[in-house]
Structure prediction request, 146 residues.
Amino acid sequence: MPVHLVKLCVGVKEVSELVAWQTARRKDMLSRGLKPEIIHVTRMTPRRRDELLDGGSLYWVIKGFIQVRQTIVDLRVMDGKDGIRRCGIVLSPDVTPCAPAPRRPFQGWRYLTQADAPRDLEAGVLSGLDGMPEKMRAELMELGLI
Prediction:
């Protein structure tokens, strides 16, 4: 049974920012002749590797709520320029919206069981909310209405 990771998406205020940043990163890698992959580097390596690679995802917390997920494709050992080994979490380029779930700030990442993972939303469900004022959308999310 898969297990997932939850991670804060630091510096990102909206899902569209995450998607734009990842798209630009893949284009840059292509232009430099590199394989266009999304790799999120973390200091610690998850010990539950097999469970993560058995269909696990990285759930991104944006503005205090889990809002989207990306499937984990691989976990790689990466050596930093400072000589410290880190873990590269290779992610699918597909960003899947999920039912907003509140999360308090935390450092690093946390495991998330399949039973506790927010359900996926159909494509376009959140797009109708883009014109809504940010404050109103946040309040509705806090109330669990969207």
Observations:
- The domain at 3-121 is CATH 2.30.130 (Archaeosine Trna-guanine Transglycosylase; Chain: A, domain 4).
- Residues 15-31 form the longest helix (17 residues).
- The two ends are 28 Å apart (CA to CA).
